[in-house]
Write a structure and sequence with these properties.
The complex is a heterodimer of chains A (275) and B (353). By secondary structure, chain A is of the alpha/beta class. Chain A folds into 2 domains: 147 residues, 3-Layer(aba) Sandwich (Rossmann fold), CATH 3.40.50.700; 100 residues, no CATH class. In chain B, helix 6 crosses helix 9 and helix 7 crosses helix 9. The N and C termini of chain B lie far apart (53 Å). Chain B folds into 2 domains: 191 residues, no CATH class; 121 residues, no CATH class. The longest helix of chain B has 21 residues. The chains are: A alpha/beta (275), B alpha+beta (353). Chains A and B meet through helix 2, helix 6, helix 7 and helix 9 of A and strand 3, helix 7 and helix 10 of B. Bound molecules: iron/sulfur cluster (5 copies). One iron/sulfur cluster binds next to helix 8 of chain A.
C-alpha cells in the first residue's frame, strides 16, 4: 500500500454541488488557496461550478452545500447520493440547520406569496431542511460559512480512510484555550456555551460574540441559557448582559432559532433538563 | 527567614528589562488587540509588564503546560520516523500571585505521582519564578484555602511597599537574578509596610468558605447532596470554563493530526475538562458520568475530597477563576457554602428532632 495511506487506488474524482444557500461555503473553500493546492495533489476535481466550467457526472466524492427546500432538490440529492461513494455536507445549511429553516415558522403558501407575489403559482416550496435530514451522509462539516479547519480535517480523514465525528463540545472550550477575553465582559451575548465548537472560536478571537452558526451541540443545556440570561441579581460575568437586555424567553428563543430551526426549535420542549 | 531586600520603583523596569535581555520572560501583560485584557504572555519590553493586575482568566500554569502543544512529529517513512518536540531554553515566569504559586506546587505533586508525567517537571526545571502579592477582588477566597501567603515554587517574591517592592529571596536562583540589581537591605519600616499590605489583603477578602478544608471534606463525604447537585446542574452549560481556567486542573486529551500532504503529521495535546459530556466516555460507549449533575458533583469531590485526601490539601487555591469565568453565574464559594450550611442545618434539626 502507498505509504501515504490514501484509500483510493487512483486519484478520487470529487464534485461540488450547491442547494438553497448563499454559496458562501464554496467561496470559503476557494479561499484555502495553498491548502487547496496540496489537496489537489490527491484528488481530481471534476465538477465545481464556482471554480471551473467543465462538468462530469462521474465522481466518487460529492461535497454538497445548502438546504433542501423543493421537491426537486430531494430528487437531486438522492441522485447524488446514488452516484457518490462518499457524501460530505458542507456547512450548517447542509449539515444541521441554518437561516433557511427560519421560514418553517410560517405556512409555505404565505412564504411563496411574500417572495414571489403574483408569480407564486409557478413555484413550489417545502419546509427547509438540511441534507442530513433527507439522505444518509458520510461526513458532516458545520459553520456559516463552513469552518475551514474542519473542512481540511475532513478532507484528510477521507483520504486516509478515517471516520470524522464533529466535536461535541461548546465553543467556550476553544475560546478559553485561545486565552481571549470572554465577550460577556463587554456586555455582549455569546452563544458559545451551547454551540458546537470546531471553528477555533474565530469570532470571539476578534472580539465578536459567537452567534451559534455551527448549531447547538448535543445535550446543549437551553434551560441553563434561559436561567443565566434572565437571572435576577446575577453578580458575575453575565450581569452586564442581563441588565442591558432584560431578555424575555421569546427573545432568547428567537436568538437560538437562527441556526437551529430544524426541526423547529421550541424552547419549552428543549429545556426538559438533564442531558 | 528569607533574606529581604528592597527594589526601589526606579529599579524595577531595569531589573525586568535585564531579565528579558537574558532570555524569554513570561508575565502578565495587556493583549495588544484587547485593551484592558491582562493575560500571561511573552514579554519583549519590560514596560509592558503589569505587576499590579487582577487575576488573569487563564492561569500561569500555561507556561509549563500550554493549552495546546505538539508532543512529537511523525513521518510515515519505513520505519516510522518520530521527532520529539521539546523546548529546552530556560525562561523566567514573573508576576505570579500567591494562589497561583500554590497551584504550581500542587501540580508538581500531582504529576510526580506514579505513573509520573514527564513534560511538567521538565518544563518546571527550566524556569525561574518570581511571585508578586496582590489585593483580592470579590471572587478571591485564598484565606480559606491556605494560599494567601504561599511562597511555594518561587525564587523571588515581591510585595508592594512605598519605596517600591520588598523582595524576599527564597532560593539561590533568586539571589542570582538580583546580582547586578539596585537593591538594598530592607529596614524595619519596609518590613512593617509589607506586613501592613498583607493585613490589608486578608482584611479585604469578602468571599470565604464557611468551613475548614477538613470539615468540608467530611461534609461532602457524609452524604450525597444529590438534590443540590441537580439544582446546580439545571443551570450548568457543561461548558468546561471552570476547568479550563483552573490553575489546579491537570487533565488533557491527545490527538494525532495529519498534514495535508498525508506523509506525516503531529501528536497534539490539549487541556481537557471533566464537565464536558464526553470526558468520561470510554471505548464501548460507556460514560462514567453521563448525567450533568454527576459531572458537577465530580468537580467538587475532586477538589475538596479525593485530592484533599491524597495530598493533604484541597486542590483549590481560592483564586476564584471558575466563578469569574462561569457564564451561568455558578459561584464556587456560594455553592460550597450552600452545601455546608444545608448540612449544618440538617444536623441541627437532627439534634433537635
Ligand atoms: S466569549 Fe463566548 S465562547 Fe468565549 S468563553 Fe465567553 S461565552 Fe464562551
Ligand atoms: S464562534 Fe460561533 S458564530 Fe463564530 S464561527 Fe464559531 S460557531 Fe460560528
Ligand atoms: S486568590 Fe488571593 S492570592 Fe490569588 S489573586 Fe486573589 S488575593 Fe491574590
Ligand atoms: S463554567 Fe459554569 S456553566 Fe460552565 S461547566 Fe463550569 S459550572 Fe457549568
Ligand atoms: S476550583 Fe476555582 S477557585 Fe479553586 S483553584 Fe480552581 S479555579 Fe480557582
Amino acid at each position: 500500500m502507498d505509504k501515504r495511506m490514501v484509500r483510493f487506488g487512483n486519484k478520487p474524482q470529487i464534485a461540488f454541488f450547491d442547494f438553497a444557500c448563499c454559496e458562501g461555503c464554496q467561496l470559503s473553500v476557494l479561499q484555502l488557496e495553498e491548502h487547496l493546492l496540496d489537496m489537489l495533489n490527491h484528488v481530481d476535481v471534476v465538477t465545481w461550478r464556482e471554480a471551473m466550467s467543465e462538468q462530469s457526472n462521474d465522481y466518487d466524492i460529492a461535497f454538497c452545500e445548502g438546504s433542501i427546500t423543493r421537491e426537486e432538490d430531494v430528487e437531486r440529492i438522492r441522485a447524488i447520493r446514488e452516484q457518490a461513494s462518499i457524501l460530505v455536507t458542507l456547512g450548517s445549511c447542509a449539515s444541521g440547520g441554518c437561516h433557511n429553516d427560519l421560514k418553517n415558522q410560517w405556512p409555505m403558501a404565505e412564504m411563496l406569496d411574500l417572495v414571489y407575489g403574483d408569480m407564486a403559482e409557478h413555484f413550489d416550496t417545502i419546509p427547509s431542511r438540511p441534507i442530513t435530514a433527507v439522505v444518509d451522509v458520510d461526513y458532516r462539516t458545520y459553520g456559516c460559512p463552513v469552518s475551514l479547519p474542519e473542512f481540511v480535517t475532513v478532507v484528510k480523514r477521507i483520504l486516509t480512510g478515517q471516520r470524522y465525528e464533529p466535536p461535541n463540545q461548546p465553543v467556550c472550550v476553544e475560546c478559553k484555550l485561545n486565552d481571549h477575553l470572554c465577550v460577556y465582559e463587554k456586555g455582549l451575548v455569546c452563544l458559545g456555551p451551547v454551540t458546537r465548537c470546531g471553528c477555533g472560536a474565530i469570532c470571539t478571537q476578534f472580539g465578536d460574540p459567537c452567534r451559534g452558526c455551527r448549531g447547538l451541540m448535543d445535550a446543549a443545556n437551553l434551560e441553563a441559557a434561559v436561567k443565566a440570561l434572565t437571572r435576577e441579581q446575577a453578580h458575575s460575568i453575565v450581569r452586564r448582559v442581563v441588565e442591558r437586555y432584560r431578555f424575555t424567553e421569546e427573545e432568547i428563543e428567537a436568538k437560538l432559532r437562527i441556526y437551529n430551526n430544524w426541526p423547529e426549535l421550541k424552547l419549552e420542549e428543549s429545556v426538559a433538563n438533564d442531558d | 527567614m528569607p533574606t529581604e531586600l528592597v527594589m526601589p520603583h526606579e529599579a524595577v523596569e531595569r531589573f525586568f528589562g535585564r531579565l528579558i535581555d537574558e532570555g524569554p520572560v513570561m508575565g502578565p501583560r495587556e493583549r495588544v488587540s484587547q485593551p484592558g485584557f491582562i493575560h500571561f504572555d511573552w514579554l519583549s519590553d519590560a514596560a509592558d509588564l503589569r505587576l499590579n493586575y487582577q487575576t488573569t482568566t487563564i492561569p500561569p500554569k500555561k507556561a509549563f503546560f500550554p493549552p495546546r502543544e505538539v508532543l512529537f512529529e511523525f513521518e510515515l517513512t519505513d520505519p516510522l520516523k518520530i521527532t520529539a518536540v521539546r523546548e529546552a531554553e530556560s525562561f523566567t515566569l514573573v508576576g505570579v500571585h500567591p494562589c497561583d504559586l500554590a497551584a504550581l506546587r500542587m501540580l508538581d505533586d500531582a504529576y510526580a505521582r506514579e505513573p509520573a508525567e514527564a513534560c511538567w517537571p521538565a518544563n518546571r526545571a527550566r524556569a525561574r519564578v518570581i511571585g508578586v502579592d496582590c489585593m483580592p477582588d470579590e471572587y478571591c477566597f485564598c484565606t480559606s484555602t491556605d494560599s494567601c501567603y504561599s511562597r511555594a515554587a518561587c525564587d523571588l517574591f515581591l510585595t508592594p511597599i512605598e519605596r517600591g517592592y520588598l523582595v524576599e529571596v527564597l532560593t539561590p536562583a533568586g539571589e542570582d537574578m538580583l546580582r547586578v540589581s539596585d537593591v538594598s537591605e530592607a529596614t524595619d519600616e519596609d518590613r512593617e509596610q509589607a506586613e501592613a499590605f498583607r493585613r490589608e489583603k486578608a482584611g479585604a477578602m469578602t468571599a470565604r468558605l464557611d468551613a475548614t478544608p477538613e470539615e468540608l471534606a467530611e461534609i461532602l463525604e457524609s452524604e450525597e447532596h444529590t438534590e443540590l447537585w441537580k439544582e446546580i446542574a439545571s443551570r450548568c452549560y457543561s461548558c468546561g470554563s471552570c476547568n479550563t481556567t483552573c490553575p489546579t486542573c491537570f487533565c488533557f486529551d491527545i490527538n494525532d493530526e495529519f498534514d495535508l500532504g498525508l506523509t506525516g503529521g503531529r501528536r497534539m495535546r490539549s487541556w481537557d475538562s471533566c464537565q464536558l459530556a464526553e470526558f468520561a466516555l470510554v471505548a464501548g460507549g460507556h460514560n462514567f458520568r453521563r448525567l450533568r449533575w454527576q459531572r458537577v458533583r465530580h468537580r467538587w469531590y475532586r477538589k475538596f475530597v479525593y485530592l484533599y485526601r491524597t495530598f493533604g490539601r484541597p486542590y483549590c487555591t481560592g483564586c476564584g477563576r471558575c466563578s469569574r469565568a462561569c457564564t451561568a453565574d455558578i459561584n464556587i464559594v456560594d455553592v460550597t457554602n450552600e452545601i455546608i450550611n444545608r448540612a449544618r442545618e440538617r444536623d441541627r434539626q437532627g439534634v433537635q428532632g
